[in-house]
């Protein structure tokens, strides 16, 4: 989930800046020609490859870095990120697990590993990773959101509801989280509880217009 979100934001941001990134790539290629073993230059070039959606080129650049620094965290994480875009999930999993063996509290890597495991059809293993993330970051709404999404996919509805409630508790003005909680309550047939959640959200200051559609659904 988090990797997908990061991907969407990256693609939106880069469209207007493609000429700038291509110019940067040309400059970096010239610098690498004179300093072929510079880890910093290869990392910078790989970052530009990512911005240009040149996934395989980025993977190759990170591979060069990892030949010299086998546990470089940026190279491992972003090579996995690029591999995920190419749906090379086993390769992405290997890099993320290697990174986590050295930096076990790397939350972004663990969230990304959970996403990769989901795509591989290993939901139980993905849930184990997300449980660890929640333990590591119990005050992060994002961790509960990630786990709730997977629990919903696994039909663990009460567990998913608890996690949406925790996300709302931590970010009470996030209307998307409120809507997700309400949607799940309606799915469970708990209309009165869903209405109470909407009323409480409005009392906190969330505009009623953002939640009007869900009030209509409750009444229908």
Question: Could you outline the blueprint of secondary structure elements for this entry?
Answer:
Layout: H1 2-14, H2 18-34, H3 39-51, H4 55-68, H5 73-85, H6 89-102, H7 107-119, H8 123-136, H9 141-153, H10 157-170, H11 175-187, H12 191-204, H13 208-219
Helix pairs in contact: 2-3, 3-4, 4-5, 5-6, 6-7, 7-8, 8-9, 9-10, 10-11, 11-12, 11-13, 12-13
Name the features.
220 residues; single chain; 0% strand; elongated; disordered N terminus; 13 helices
What does this structure look like?
The chain is mainly α and 220 residues long. It has 13 helices and no strands. The longest helix has 17 residues, at 18-34. The chain is elongated. Residues 1-16 have low confidence and may be disordered.
- From the helix content, strand content and strand pairing, which structural class follows? mainly alpha
Shape: elongated
Rg over CA atoms: 21 Å
Number of helices: 13
Average pLDDT metric: 88
Proportion of beta-strand residues = under 5%
Q: In sequence order, what are the helices and strands, one letter per element?
A: HHHHHHHHHHHHH
**First CA to last CA: what distance?**
32 Å
Biggest β-sheet: count, sense, barrel? none
- What are the low-pLDDT stretches, counting only 5+ consecutive residues below 50? 1-16
Counting DSSP E segments of at least 2 residues, the number of strands comes to 0
- Helical amount: over 70%
């Amino acid at each position: 989930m988090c990797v997908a979100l990061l991907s969407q934001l990256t693609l939106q941001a880069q469209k207007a800046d493609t000429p700038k990134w291509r110019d940067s790539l040309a400059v970096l290629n010239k610098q690498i020609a004179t300093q072929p073993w510079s880890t910093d230059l290869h990392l910078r070039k790989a970052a530009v490859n990512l911005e240009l959606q040149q996934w395989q080129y980025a993977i190759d650049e990170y591979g060069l870095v990892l030949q010299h620094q086998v546990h470089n965290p940026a190279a491992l994480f972003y090579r996995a990120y690029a591999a995920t875009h190419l749906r090379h999930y086993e390769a992405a999993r290997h890099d993320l697990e290697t990174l986590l063996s050295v930096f076990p509290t790397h939350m972004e890597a663990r969230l990304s590993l959970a996403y990769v495991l989901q795509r591989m059809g290993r939901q139980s293993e993905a849930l184990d990773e997300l449980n660890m993330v929640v333990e590591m970051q119990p005050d992060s709404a994002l961790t509960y959101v990630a786990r709730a999404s997977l629990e919903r996919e696994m039909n663990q509805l009460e567990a998913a509801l608890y996690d949406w409630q925790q996300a709302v508790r931590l970010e009470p003005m996030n209307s998307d989280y409120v809507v997700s909680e309400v949607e799940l309550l309606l799915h469970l047939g708990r209309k009165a509880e869903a209405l109470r959640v909407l009323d409480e959200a409005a009392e906190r200051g969330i505009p009623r217009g953002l939640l009007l559609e869900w009030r209509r659904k409750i009444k229908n």
